[in-house]
Design goal:
11 helices, 3 domains, single chain, 12 strands, elongated, Rossmann fold
Length: 439
């Protein structure tokens, strides 16, 4: 997986550098001071990175499938902040180098230009602040997505217009056309994501077949296809779900599939009550229209490749692992399995009865870990750490693969502990999708 990930990363870097390369190939008539040129280059680099960001956030299944959409979106978040800082550094560097560049923001010189560039700068600041502190300021995820996408689009279009009009590096028609094309192509993918994809989803509707309460303040939603063959997916993958009469909705949420991959016409996901949307799931009526986008994710074990598979789950992070175990049971997989399942208490252990039953159908070693165990509990207690993993798991070897899903603190500790035990990063898979825990 690592070599392919490096190839995708290399492709990203090349695409992001193209606007800068176009500018450098053009020979301006007038040489300028170093800091002025640096400020201009920061602007071209920021424009390129932001344009490619629109491509990687489109949830295109062909884009870096080996990396997984959860990891891709984490990458987008970090690089996106870097790109916004590049855009901010562009005017700051130019103004510090030559204060007369402040005239670009002076409405007395050109009111349209001044207002547009000022709004771009303000938009960059808003995007960075809401990306870092959305939960702290209480901005709902749905409205943040609209704000984030709209402002990012405005910044890219505004940046492109600014680069074309200043024309120090884009004076020629060919250069202008090349730069515009390179930036507008990702915008085409954005149109596909926001408009054409929901239209395609309308041809494959689903409906809620049943809802079922689960332990741990969780609910299972079972879906059935309406007029089509269902969804082919791999165990461990996730989908984006919209409930309602139209796929053009702000209420779109990611959920791991919990059902067996052997039943594409009877899929299910399980969610814990963690926010406003998941709080409504117990009251969803059978027959409710649903729309599905996916499947996504590289959190998929290969029982033919791995000699042993270790699964570590915390709380509702058990859901993709249930899909893995249910699928393996249906397929008669005999690969040795180890599951460490951490919960606050015994009553919050979702699927605990079915997990016990699965130990009779699979070569599965099941280890419950409780923070607040009941009286006379003889199992593991406390938190998942290196000492517990050393005590409970088999010795690491090159044919052992690890899969971790749960709250971020558990995943951080488990990843560090497994690496300390000698596990290779190429054999360690994490379903690190923070939207599971933040609405």
């Amino acid at each position: 997986m690592i070599p392919r990930a490096l190839l995708w990363l290399s492709a990203y870097v090349v695409l992001a550098l193209i606007p800068l390369g176009v500018a450098l190939v053009h020979q301006p008539a007038e040489a300028r001071a170093f800091w002025v040129e640096l400020g201009a280059m920061l602007g071209f680099l920021g424009l390129g990175v932001l344009a490619v960001q629109m491509l990687i956030t489109g949830r295109h299944r062909w884009f870096a499938p080996e990396i997984g959409l959860d990891n891709t979106l984490q990458f987008h978040r970090q690089v996106g902040i870097f790109a916004m800082l590049l855009v901010l550094a562009h005017p700051v560097t130019l103004i510090l180098a030559e204060p007369e560049n402040l005239t670009y923001l002076d409405p007395r010189e050109d009111i349209l230009r001044a207002v547009s560039l000022t709004l771009v700068v303000i938009s960059v600041i808003i995007v960075v602040c809401t990306s870092l502190w959305r939960v702290t300021i209480g901005l709902p995820n749905e409205w943040w997505r609209v704000l984030h996408g709209g402002l990012a689009l405005f910044i890219v279009i505004g940046g492109l217009g600014h680069a074309l009009m200043v024309d120090h590096y884009t004076a020629g028609a060919a250069t202008k056309g090349m730069l515009a094309g390179l930036v507008l192509i990702p915008l085409g993918f954005l149109v596909d994501t926001r408009l054409l994809r929901p239209l395609r989803m309308r041809r494959r509707p689903w409906r809620v077949a049943a809802t079922q309460p689960e332990r741990g303040d969780s609910t299972t939603i079972r879906l059935e296809p309406v007029g089509h063959e269902g969804l082919v997916f791999a165990p461990g993958q996730f989908i984006w779900v919209t409930l309602g009469e139209t796929p053009f909705s702000l209420q779109q949420h990611p959920f791991s599939l919990a059902s067996s991959a052997t039943e594409p016409q009877a899929i299910a996901f399980t969610a814990k009550r963690l926010g406003d949307f998941t709080a409504t799931l117990p009251s969803v009526e059978p027959g409710t229209r649903a729309w599905i986008e996916g499947p996504y994710g590289a959190f998929v074990p290969d029982s033919d490749r791995a000699g042993t598979i270790v699964l570590i789950a915390g709380g509702i992070g058990i859901t993709p692992i249930m899909s893995i175990l249910r699928t393996f049971a249906e397929r008669g997989v005999r690969t040795p399995l180890w599951l460490i399942y951490a919960n606050e208490d015994w009553e919050s252990a979702t699927f605990r009865e079915e997990l016990d039953a699965l130990t009779n159908r699979l070569p599965l070693q099941l280890i419950h870990v409780l923070d607040s165990p009941p009286e006379h509990w003889s199992g593991e207690t406390g938190f998942v750490d290196e000492e517990l993993l050393e005590r409970c798991l088999p010795a690491d070897s090159k044919d052992v693969e690890y899969f971790i899903c749960g709250p971020p603190p558990l995943m951080d500790v488990a990843e560090k502990a497994l690496l300390s035990r000698g596990a290779s990063p190429t054999r360690l898979y994490s379903d690190r999708f923070d939207l599971y825990y933040k609405e």
